[in-house]
Write a structure and sequence with these properties.
This protein is an alpha+beta fold. The chain folds into 2 domains: about 1-65; about 80-440, Porin (Beta Barrel), CATH 2.40.160.10. Helix content is about 15%, strand content about 45%. The chain is built from 3 helices and 18 strands. It has a 16-stranded antiparallel barrel. The protein is globular.
Length: about 450
């Protein structure tokens, strides 16, 4: 349109110039005819320019639509959850649903088999709200952060912990590049997080150490290593203060303390953990040490391990745990050692494969009232008997990823025990097989 106007203006100027110099009517008419022709050419050029502009805009719109349609599913869902932002504040509603149909034997003392939906194999069903508020400008501004997270059972809709809605997380904290991440309240035991043993405990967690929560699988026979990464409150901590920081040189450090709640006894029921990890080029190493006071008896774990990315297809994970616990005076201390080896295969495409093996050797371990070996960090003040033996589990899985948030899996494990080691999951039998078929969806 601008080009057309310029041509019209030039034509007008030309007409004026010719008119001023014209010596006869014929010359004036000839100049007028030339001006009219120039104006017609200008209008035609303007119409062509407008048509070209409209075609360009239409082509750009088609290209944008084509690009959006061709974008990978992971890009379309790169940020899970529904986020609402206002100024310096944001909050995200998120969740995960995992349903599993399981077949297993020795589901009771009579050795019966059963096929039934059960508590999710890999991931506790959950929903939560997390958010942050930047208290100032710049990349290093301190942010107020929080998380509330609740677990439920998909097969019944019941709360995972009756009467406790936010049984997974209920914490508030501060975070910045300089400060790190400092959180207060109920949260993961630090030892099971990606700042510690989550990078080697099984093949399903993050390969790299970080300040995030999360680690280990859920309800199955190879879950048990997670108890060595526990606390006086189990695999999470109450009344907790946790600090984690990722340093620029590849190190990730952490420290945690959970306060006891026994009047006039500050330390009873308390836990403390320190962790250190290092992210190298294609590998990560990590470790932790925990000490907890349970009924004024000391429970302790130290552990170290890591993973290495052999090539784009193969990752290997390995770790070692050493656990000791004071028990009722008549029985002396419990001393366990455990180790694990696992791999994750990612050949490309929608499938990946996992395989793992773990051995837990318990020595002089306290028994529950039913005669089963207690989990690590259980109350050992009133035990009446002990046992020694090994617990071995081999497990594997195949995942099919429909997209970045929807996946199906087939998983199995085989548990076997020796000597006096009786596992509660096998109801006193010396072995158990489990086979699970499931689906997970993240939102």
């Amino acid at each position: 349109m601008k080009a057309g106007k310029l041509i019209l203006a030039s034509a007008a100027l030309g007409l004026a110039s010719v008119a001023a110099q014209a010596q006869s009517t014929d010359q004036l008419q000839q100049a007028l005819a030339q001006a009219r022709e120039a104006a017609a050419q200008a209008q035609a050029a303007a119409r062509q320019a407008q048509a070209a502009l409209e075609q360009a805009l239409a082509a750009a719109e088609r290209a944008q639509q084509s690009s959006a349609a061709a974008a990978p599913a992971s890009q379309a869902a790169s940020s899970s959850g529904l986020t609402i932002s206002k100024g310096a504040s944001s909050a995200t509603l998120y969740g995960l649903i995992d349903v599993t149909l399981v077949n297993k034997n020795n589901v009771n003392a009579a050795g019966a088999s059963q096929t039934s939906p059960q508590v999710a194999w890999f991931s506790g069903n959950r929903w939560g709200i997390t958010g942050s508020h930047a208290t100032g400008p710049g990349d290093d501004a301190i942010k107020a952060i929080f998380r509330l997270e609740s677990e439920f059972e998909s097969e019944t809709g019941n709360m995972d912990t009756a009467g406790t809605i936010f049984n997974r997380d209920a914490w508030l904290g501060l975070e910045s590049k300089t400060l790190g991440k400092l959180t207060f309240g109920r949260q993961n035991a630090l030892a099971r997080d990606p700042a510690a043993s989550a990078v080697y405990g099984d093949p399903y967690g993050s390969a790299k150490a970080s300040v995030e929560e999360g680690g280990y699988s859920n309800t199955n026979n190879f879950k048990q290593l997670i108890y060595y990464a526990g606390s006086a409150n189990g695999t999470r901590i109450n009344n907790g203060v946790v600090w984690k920081k990722a340093f620029s040189n590849g190190f990730v450090g952490g420290a945690a303390y959970s306060f006891g709640t026994v009047p006039d006894s500050f330390g009873t029921g308390s836990s403390k953990t320190g962790s250190l990890a290092y992210n190298g080029n294609g590998y990560t190493i990590a470790g932790f040490a925990t000490s907890a006071n349970i009924k004024n008896l000391t429970h302790q774990t130290y552990s170290f391990g890591g993973n290495v990315q052999i090539n784009p297809m193969i990752r290997l994970n390995a770790g070692y745990f050493n656990y000791t616990a004071q028990q009722a005076a008549a029985f002396g201390d419990r001393k366990d050692t455990a180790w694990t080896l696992s791999t994750k295969l990612t050949p490309g495409g929608p499938f990946d494969y996992e395989l793992g093996y773990q051995v837990m050797s318990a020595s002089n371990a306290g028994l529950t009232g039913s005669g089963y070996v207690q989990n690590a960090y259980s109350d050992a003040s009133a035990i009446t008997a002990t046992a020694t033996g090994d617990r071995t589990t081999v497990y594997g899985s195949v995942f099919y990823h429909l997209d970045s948030v929807t996946e199906f899996y087939l998983a199995f494990d085989h548990l076997s025990t020796t000597d006096g080691y009786k596992a509660a999951q096998a109801n006193g039998a010396m072995s158990q097989n489990e086979l699970g078929l499931g689906m997970r969806f993240k939102f």
